[in-house]
Amino acid sequence: MTTNYHAATGRLLCLLCAVFCLASRALFAAGDKVTITYWEKWTGFEADAMRAVVDDFNASQDRIFVDFSSVSQIDRRLMLATAGGVPPDVAGIWAEQLPVYAENNALTPLDRMAAAEGITGSEYIPAFWNLCRHRGHLWALPSTPASIALVYNKKMFREAGLDPERPPRTIAELEEFNDRLLRRSESGKILTIGHLPEEPGWWSPMWGYWFGGSLWDGKSRITADSPENRAAFRWIQSYPDRFGADNLLAMHDGFSNFASSQNAFFTGRVAMVLQGVWVYNFIEKYAPADFEWGVAPFPTATAGDPNPTTIVECDILVIPHGAKHPQEAFEFIRYVNSRKPMEKLCLGQRKFSPLAECSEEFFAKHPNPFIRTFLELAKSPNARTVPRMATWTEYTAELKNAVGRVWAGRARAEEALAEAQSRQQKSLDRQLERWHRQENTLKREWDKP
pLDDT over 70 for what percent of the chain? Predict the structure, then answer.
C-alpha cells in the first residue's frame, strides 16, 4: 500500500509540475502585451491548423499575445489546473464534456461577454450553438464541428450489381444490400459483408436515433429501454442471429486499426460504414489510389421523413473558472468565430464551418468532394447529439457493454437494455440529487454581473 501511495503521489506531483510549467511559460513570451495561455487537445495537422489561426490573431493587433500549447490528457490537466487556481485562459475541449465541467463550476459563463459582442445563436448552425449551452447558460463557442453519414464503397456496389449512385435509404434496404454484398469462403467464413453495426462501433450506444428513439427525456428520466431503442437493439441482435456470433467476432478480430492501410473499409472487407467528415483525411492517406467512395445520409428504420438523421459533434473553446484574463480570452475566441479565421481553421482540418453562413471560396478550396453533404446533414432538424447530461461517460460505457453482450450472443436485446435502464436511472437520480443541492448556489454565482 505504501508503494502504491508513493507512486500515486509521484504521478500527481509530476502532473502538477507539468500544469504549472504550462501555465507559467507564457510569462516570458510577449513583452508588454497581455499574454493568454491556450491549451488545446489537438496534435499533428489539426494543431497546425489552429496554430496558424493563433499566429494570425497575434499579428492582427498589438495588445494580446496567445500562447498556444498542445496538451495531452487535457481533461485531467484542465480540471486539476482549475482546482489548483492556475487554469489556462482558454481551453479546447469536446462538447460532450461541457455538462461535467459546468456542473463542477469549472467554467466561466460567457453570456454577458457574448451579449456585449452581439453574438447570438443566429450566427451558428443550431445544433452547434445548442452544444455550447447547458443549464440555461452559454459556456463555450464552437471551433471545428463534425457530422456522420453512410460512407460506402462504390466499386463493391458495382461488382454486386448495385447502383453506385443509389445507396440504401432504409434499414430494410440496408439489409437487402447486405445480402447482395455478402461473400463467404467454401467453409462458410465471411470474407466480405455490406455493413456491420460494430464497424467501427464508435456510436453504437446511439443506434436508436435512426429508429426514432432517444436516450433520456432531457430532464430526469433515462429512456434506454424505449420501444425505439429496443427495435435498434433487435436489429443489432439480428446480426449474430443471422451470421453467427462466432463468425462475426472472428471476422472483426481480423480487422486492422482504423488509421491504417488495412482498415476493413479501405480493403473492401466491409462496403458501408458510419463515419464522420474526417474520413476524407484517412481515405487520402491510407486507401488505395483508385478507391471509389460515396456519402449519403445513414438509412433510417422508416421511410418518408425528408430530414435525414445524423449525430453531430463539436470541439469547443471555453474559458476556465478562475482564468486570469477572461476578457482578452473571449476576444480571441470571438476572433476564431469570425468567418475568415473559422473557415481557415476548418479548411485546415478538412471539416466544415459551424457558422450559419459560409463562403463559396471555402467550398471551392475544400478537397473533400462531399463536404456539402456533411454540412447539410448538420443542418437537418434531425441532427442529434450525445445526451447533455453529466453522467454521459458512465451511461455510454453501460450501453457499449450492452451492445457488446448482444453482439456476442450473451444477452438478448430486451434483457441488456432493461439492465442498462435500471442502473443508469439510479446513477442519474444520484447525480440530480447532487445537482439540486448546489443548484441555487451555482446559479447565483453564474448570474453575477
Answer: 93
Locate cell 490573431: which residue? 57
Q: Is the pLDDT of residue 393 over 90?
A: yes
CA 175/CA 157 separation, integer angstroms? 14
- Between CA 387 and CA 146 the distance in angstroms is 16
How many angstroms separate the CA atoms of 310 and 200, rounded? 16
Claim to verify: residue 344 and residue 254 sit in the same structural domain: no
Same domain, residue pair 164 and 264: yes
Question: What is the separation of C-alpha 277 from the centre of its chain, rounded to a whole number of angstroms?
Answer: 11
- pLDDT single digits (tens) 56-103: 999 999 999 999 999 999 989 999 999 999 999 999 999 999 999 999
Asked whether residue 105 falls in the same domain as residue 142, the answer is: yes
What single letter denotes the amino acid at residue 104?
Answer: N
Nearest Cα neighbor of 346 from 53, 41, 57 is 53
Residues 184 and 190 sit within 8 Å (Cβ to Cβ): yes
* Entry field: residues in the chain: 449
CATH of the domain at 245: 3.40.190.10
Nearest-5° angle of CA 191, CA 192, CA 194?
155
Give the β-pairing of 310-318 and 140-153.
Answer: antiparallel
Q: In sequence order, what are the residues at sequence separation of 6 or more whose Cβ sits closer than 8 angstroms to the Cβ of residue 17?
A: none
How many domains is the chain built from?
2
Domain contains 394: yes
Q: Which domain holds residue 191?
A: 148-311+388-431
pTM for this one?
0.91
- CB count within 10 Å of CB 133 equals 17
Sign of the CA dihedral running 273, 310, 341, 88 = negative
